[in-house]
Write a structure and sequence with these properties.
This is ABC transporter permease. It is a multi-pass membrane protein. Pfam families: BPD_transp_1. InterPro entries: MetI-like, MetI-like_sf. With 266 residues, this protein is mainly α. It has a single domain, classed as MetI-like fold (Orthogonal Bundle). Helix content is 80%, strand content 0%. The chain has 12 helices and no strands. Helix 1 packs across helix 12 and helix 4 crosses helix 6. The chain is globular and about 70 Å long.
Length: 266
């Protein structure tokens, strides 16, 4: 028995070591990029010979970068609102509905998660060219919404499935109408799922690059597209600064989601 415990302990430490090594391998490039964004060398030397905020100053005073940043933020906010709203309606139908082919409909909604992004991007590009939406804000929103919607449906559906339906029934018995039940009972009870859907939808749009490359035009580019196009032309620390801002907002939102979840559980 003691030998078994020793083996389990050794296996645990081995798994922790492998997991730590994989995490370090994945995170080190991000750490390097953040460090290079503060380096005072324009040749991206690591470790940097000195430290400066010059690249962030250039980033935040360049109208091209600012326009791309604002475009990404605008599209992400619109996509988040639409994704949560449509995801809520779809989740209510999928979880509460009793219609034939419900699993097929659910699989259809989740298809963008398993479909290669480049295939989706090429299909949207060809379709939007025909209807004149390529290079427009509407085209960006639709493309990003297709990618973000499955995350909303999964998060909200999980909350609805764990929700006690008897609370809605009790509210109905007390005289509340169907809409009032949804607004005053259902939505507050699944607010954590709605919050998770909003975060994942925002990040799905904020970080999207493949679909955005096909949707972009010379006058309308998101921040990831701007980073990609600049990277192909010139390797400058401003790209590292822009990438750090992109990653920074992602980390902040993920930490905010974890904090809200921990507060909710406490």
């Amino acid at each position: 028995m003691l030998l078994d415990f020793d083996r389990l302990g050794a296996l645990r430490w081995m798994l922790l070591s492998v997991g730590g090594a994989v995490a370090l391998f994945l995170l080190l490039p991000i750490v390097f990029i953040v460090a290079l964004s503060f380096g005072d060398s324009q040749w991206l030397i690591f470790p940097p010979p000195g430290w400066t905020l010059e690249w962030y100053r250039q980033l935040l005073t360049d109208s091209g970068w600012i326009d791309s940043l604002l475009t990404s933020a605008k599209i992400a906010v619109i996509v988040t609102v639409l994704s949560v709203g449509l995801g809520l309606l779809a989740s209510l139908a999928l979880v509460r509905g009793k219609f034939r082919g419900r699993n097929t409909v659910k699989a259809f909604f989740l298809t963008p998660m398993v479909l290669p992004v480049v295939v989706l991007a090429v299909a949207l590009y060809a379709f939007f060219l025909r209807i004149g939406l390529n290079g427009t804000l509407v085209g960006f929103v639709i493309g990003h919404l297709i990618i973000a919607l499955p995350f909303s449906i999964i998060a909200i559906s999980n909350s609805l499935e764990s929700f006690d339906v008897s609370l809605e029934e009790a509210a109905s018995i007390c005289g509340a109408g169907p809409l009032e039940v949804k607004l005053r009972v259902t939505l507050p009870a699944i607010r954590l799922g709605l919050f998770a859907a909003a975060i994942f939808s925002f990040l799905a749009s904020w970080d999207e690059v493949v679909v955005s490359i096909f949707m972009a035009s010379p006058t309308l580019q998101t921040l990831p597209v701007r980073i990609w196009s600049t990277l192909r032309q010139d390797l400058t620390p401003v790209i590292a600064a822009a990438s750090s801002l992109l990653v920074g907002l992602t980390v902040v939102l993920m930490l905010l989601g974890a904090l809200v979840k921990r507060t909710r559980q406490a």
